[in-house]
Amino acid sequence: MLRYKLTCPQTWPNPRGSDRDATEAILKAHGLNDDATFGNTKVFIQNPVTVFELEKIRDSKIPGLVIYLQKLVRGALARRLAKRMRAAYKIGLFYRRSKYQKLFRTLQHSYKYDDLYPCSKFRDCFIDRIFFLLGT
User: Fold this and answer.
1) Residue 117: its pLDDT value, please?
2) Phi, psi of 3 (to 5 degrees)
3) Residue 11, class by beta-carbon neighbours within 10 Å (0-12 exposed, 13-18 middle, 19+ buried)?
4) b (16+ CB within 10 A) / e for 103-121
5) CA–CA gap between residue 4 and residue 11 (Å, rounded)
6) Is the distance from CB of 35 to CB of 46 less than 8 angstroms?
7) What is the DSSP track for 49-73?
8) Which of 59, 62, 81 is nearest to 70 (CA)?
9) Which tens digit of pLDDT belongs to each residue from 12-56?
C-alpha cells in the first residue's frame, strides 16, 4: 500500500481508514480489483500483469511528485534568502543612518563654534575633513 499510494487520489498523501481500505481504493481506482484476493494481512494477485501495470502507473507519477517537492524546497530556500537579504539591507540602512547622524551632529557642533573661529580657513578645512570622512 505504501509503495502505490501515490497512484490514487484517495490515498495520497495520507490514506483514510485502514490499510485494507486504502489497498482496495488503489486497486479500484485503476480497475484492477478483479485480479486481487484479500487475505487477513496480505493481498494475493493472480496475474503478474497487474503488478506491472501498477509499477507503470507509479513510474509515470513519480516525476510529477519530484517536481512538486523541488518546487517546495526551492520556494523555501528562496524565502530564506529573501529574508537574509532584507536583514542585510536593513543593517545597511541603519549603518548609513547612524553615519549621517554622526556627520550632522559634527556639523552642528562646528557651526556652534563658528563664531569663535571667524577665519574661513577653519571652515574650509572642516568641510574637507567631512568629505574625507564620507569617502567622496
Assistant:
1) 52
2) -70, -35
3) buried
4) eeeeeeebeeeeeeeeeee
5) 9
6) yes
7) HHHHHHHHHHHHHHHHHHHHHHHHH
8) 62
9) 777 887 888 888 888 888 888 788 878 887 788 888 888 888 889
Asked whether the predicted pLDDT for residue 136 surpasses 60, the reply is no
Q: Round to whole Å and give the CA distance between 73 and 81.
A: 12
Q: Is the whole model's pTM more than 0.85, yes or no? A: no
List the one residue out of 33, 22, 26, 24 whose CA is nearest residue 7: 26
Q: What residue type is assigned to position 85 of the chain?
A: M
Residues recorded for the chain? 136
For residue 36, give the 3-state DSSP assignment.
Answer: strand
Residue appearing with cell numbers 552642528: 108
Hey, what's the cell of 107?
A: 556639523
Cα separation, 83 vs 73, in Å, equals: 15
At 48 the three-state DSSP class reads helix
Bridge partners of residue 36, in order along the sequence: 45
95 phi, psi to nearest 5 deg = -65, -50
